């Protein structure tokens, strides 16, 4: 076939069979013309409401007036042209999509977008002598046929007008819902406000109003429902009634029954499909779904209670977000190892967007080349043996400073505050170097803590994305933006200092900021270029992760040992025995491998008091089957590590704090054993485990070696408050206030 013949065949295929359409519509489709536009919906819905209102209103008049759809089509044409000439052409963003109120000239696609007897016969046999049931079924049979033919007619015309069938059907469906609602509302309003409207005897003879002559399917219901086909056509009947009466459909029922019926069927099908394929879960409340279960002060405990009833893989509807909660080691293995490539993405939450410079941090960056690049940089510069050896002297110096500070204290100390300051100073020196470590240090530390607290707060946009704008009225977004601005000012100043210093010859060691600036300047060596905002987001992650987690782990470990004095005595004896053998009696990182019991205490603390009981949420990138359940694409996944760590299947006596359980236990916290994953596993496991755990071990060992400890005031160990507060990390509700007693002074330092 020649090119010309192909073009002719294509044109013939799309030629309109309606002559009037063929006169104004091209035979070839212009796919660039917009269809589902703001103008089309405004004019379509406005015309629908006005047309139904006027026709319903005038049908109650003694002199009725009928307004045709063609007349309304003619009326809206100049209005559409006027809107195209006056509406702003600016593009807006809503729910992640761009749209414009005025995408160009008003086009024809926008302008246009706006089995009876057999059913009765069958139904008469199904439900004999039930005329009301037959009446309703007859109405449905008649109306379904009429509406089906009308829908098909409009779809066919829309096809010739080059309007996509899905767009046409959506307009038809919504139009039916709107006109049915308006029809019912107008009729109800008139019947309620016009006295005796449908009372023939009570209505004044000269009244301009009348009751429309609506006829129900009375005769059909009597014939097929009351008498029934069995008595009409069954055995022994000599006279067959074959006359079929034709009556007018009831307008209100015609308007409402069809859309309501299809909505009901759609709801049943959707619910049945979800019930069969999704994991089990608790009943869902209207609008909020299962959000009520997150109102618990410890959501990880509430979710564990649900998992006992519904299983280790559970489906919840948190607001409008479909969420899978995993509560067993085997289920976690499926998510974080077997199908890790599918579940390695992060959901787009509100706080990481604002505080994380539009998801450019390591924790919440979308999975891809940029994230892989960030993780590689952080592992190389923070967690390798070479980088750990290079920063060892910083950790040891800062720990000594804290020990010296505590030894001079004459009052009870807030342990977690001292630990947070210690870890912050360590990270600050590793990140920014030594030259400007005290510049704006307190202001920066407070801003970090404020940002962490804000990120842990409830964000309505995380559960109802379409209601994210509400945060603008509550002030949450504004507070996060102000916090980000303050953090940016401090970090910009520090980064600029390093840029200026880089232009000079200096012997000072290279810190993390220097490395990132060098990589930024190299540019071509990276898959994705590093911006200044990218650098700041990396620094934010390093500070929040290392400072908060390490501080809380040490505080929980101290609390458990204070509650069980024999445990603390055993740990102190081990540490002091190791240091006593040294020529220089000081705690160094090289001593840590010998402190087996202290390491067991820390491991048990990570199991019993995990810093992040609900691991950072993941999101499926495609549909996946797990244990026979279907996990749809873009489903949020929460791994309840707290439940896994308390699972009696994996742990003996899981609700007892017992460090000795790790004496012969080979489980490791680096993500290889899914019964024990305090820092996650798979691709999205924490990249700073080595740095964080070294800080934790060195801090705890120094506190136990140099001091004996007791609770402040008259508090007894057995009465120690062990309640927890859920946030970005799970921290002790009542901070430890302790009285230190110096046992081994630091004069040898």
From TrEMBL:
GO molecular function annotations of the record: heme binding; iron ion binding; monooxygenase activity; oligopeptide transmembrane transporter activity; oxidoreductase activity, acting on paired donors, with incorporation or reduction of molecular oxygen
Keywords assigned by UniProt, alphabetized: Glycoprotein, Heme, Iron, Membrane, Metal-binding, Monooxygenase, Oxidoreductase, Signal-anchor, Transmembrane, Transmembrane helix, Transport
Pfam families: OPT, p450
Transmembrane segments: 40-60, 66-87
Chain positions recorded as heme binding sites: 686
Subcellular location, record wording: Membrane
Listed GO biological process terms: sesquiterpene biosynthetic process
Main location: membrane
Signal peptide feature range: none
UniProt topology in membrane: Multi-pass membrane protein; Single-pass type II membrane protein
Tree of life domain: Eukaryota
Record's GO cellular component terms: membrane
Cofactor or coenzyme needed: heme
Family named by the database record: Belongs to the cytochrome P450 family.
PANTHER family: CYTOCHROME P450 71D11-LIKE, CYTOCHROME P450 FAMILY 71 PROTEIN
Record protein name field: Cytochrome P450
Lineage: Eukaryota, Viridiplantae, Streptophyta, Embryophyta, Tracheophyta
């Amino acid at each position: 076939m020649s090119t010309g013949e192909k073009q002719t065949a294509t044109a013939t295929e799309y030629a309109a069979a309606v002559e009037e359409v063929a006169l104004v519509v091209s035979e070839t489709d212009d796919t660039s013309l917009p269809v589902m536009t703001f103008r089309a919906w405004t004019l379509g819905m406005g015309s629908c409401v006005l047309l139904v209102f006027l026709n319903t209103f005038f049908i109650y008049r003694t002199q009725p007036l009928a307004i045709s759809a063609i007349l309304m089509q003619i009326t809206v044409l100049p209005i559409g042209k006027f809107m195209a000439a006056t509406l702003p052409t600016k593009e807006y963003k809503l729910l992640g999509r761009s749209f414009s109120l005025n995408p160009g000239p008003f086009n024809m696609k926008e302008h246009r977008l706006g089995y009876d007897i057999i059913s009765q016969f069958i139904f008469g046999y199904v439900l004999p002598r039930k005329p009301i049931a037959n009446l309703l079924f007859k109405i449905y049979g008649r109306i379904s046929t009429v509406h089906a033919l009308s829908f098909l007619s409009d779809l066919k015309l829309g096809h010739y007008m080059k309007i996509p069938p899905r767009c046409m059907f959506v307009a038809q469906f919504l139009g039916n819902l709107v006109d049915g609602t308006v029809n019912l509302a107008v009729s109800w309003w008139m019947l309620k406000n016009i006295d005796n409207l449908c009372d023939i005897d009570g209505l004044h003879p000269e009244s301009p109003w009348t009751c429309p002559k609506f006829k129900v399917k009375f005769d059909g219901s009597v014939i097929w429902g009351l008498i029934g086909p069995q008595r009409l056509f069954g055995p022994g009947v000599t006279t067959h009634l074959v006359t079929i009466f034709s009556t007018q459909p009831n307008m209100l029922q015609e308007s409402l029954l069809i859309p309501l019926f299809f909505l009901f069927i759609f709801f049943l099908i959707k619910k049945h499909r979800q019930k069969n394929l999704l994991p089990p879960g608790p009943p869902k409340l209207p609008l909020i779904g299962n959000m009520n279960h997150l109102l618990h002060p410890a959501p990880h405990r509430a979710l564990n209670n649900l998992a006992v009833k519904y299983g280790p893989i559970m489906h919840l509807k948190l607001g409008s977000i479909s969420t899978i909660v995993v509560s067993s080691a085997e289920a976690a293995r499926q998510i974080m190892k077997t199908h890790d490539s599918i579940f390695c993405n992060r959901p787009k939450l509100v706080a990481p967007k604002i505080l994380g410079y539009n998801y450019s941090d390591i924790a919440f960056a979308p999975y891809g080349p940029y994230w892989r690049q960030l993780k590689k940089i952080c592992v190389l510069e923070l967690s390798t043996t070479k980088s750990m050896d290079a920063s060892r002297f910083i950790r040891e110096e800062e720990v000594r400073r804290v020990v010296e500070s505590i030894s001079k204290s004459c009052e009870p100390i807030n342990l977690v505050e001292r630990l947070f300051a210690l870890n912050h100073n360590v990270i600050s020196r590793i990140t920014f170097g030594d030259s400007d470590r005290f510049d704006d240090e307190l202001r920066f530390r407070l801003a970090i803590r404020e940002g962490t607290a804000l990120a842990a707060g409830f964000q309505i946009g995380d559960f109802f994305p379409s209601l994210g704008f509400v945060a603008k009225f509550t002030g949450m977004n504004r507070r996060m933006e102000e916090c980000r601005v303050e953090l940016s000012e401090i970090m910009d100043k520090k980064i600029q200092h390093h840029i200026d210093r880089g232009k000079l010859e200096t012997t000072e060691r290279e810190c993390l900021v220097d490395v990132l600036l060098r990589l930024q300047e190299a540019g071509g060596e990276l898959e994705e270029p590093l911006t200044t905002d990218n650098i700041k987001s990396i620094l934010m992650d390093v500070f929040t992760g290392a400072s908060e987690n390490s501080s809380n782990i040490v505080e929980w470990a101290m609390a458990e040992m204070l509650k069980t004095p024999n445990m603390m005595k055993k740990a102190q004896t081990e540490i002091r025995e190791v240091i006593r053998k040294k020529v220089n009696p000081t705690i160094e990182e090289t001593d840590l491998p010998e402190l087996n019991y202290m390491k067991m205490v820390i491991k048990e603390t990570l199991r019993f008091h995990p810093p992040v009981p609900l691991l950072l949420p993941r999101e499926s990138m495609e549909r996946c089957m797990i244990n026979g359940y279907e996990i749809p694409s873009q489903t949020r996944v929460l791994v309840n590590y707290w439940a896994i760590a308390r699972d009696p299947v994996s742990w003996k006596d899981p609700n007892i704090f017992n460090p000795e359980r790790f004496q012969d236990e080979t489980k490791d916290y680096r993500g290889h054993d899914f019964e024990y994953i305090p820092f996650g596993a798979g691709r999205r496991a924490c990249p700073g485990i080595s740095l964080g755990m070294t800080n934790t071990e060195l801090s705890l060992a120094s506190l136990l070696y140099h001091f004996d400890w007791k609770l402040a005031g008259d508090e007894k160990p057995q009465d120690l408050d062990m309640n927890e507060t859920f946030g970005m990390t799970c921290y002790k509700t009542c901070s430890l206030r302790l009285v230190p007693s110096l046992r081994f002074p630091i004069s040898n330092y």
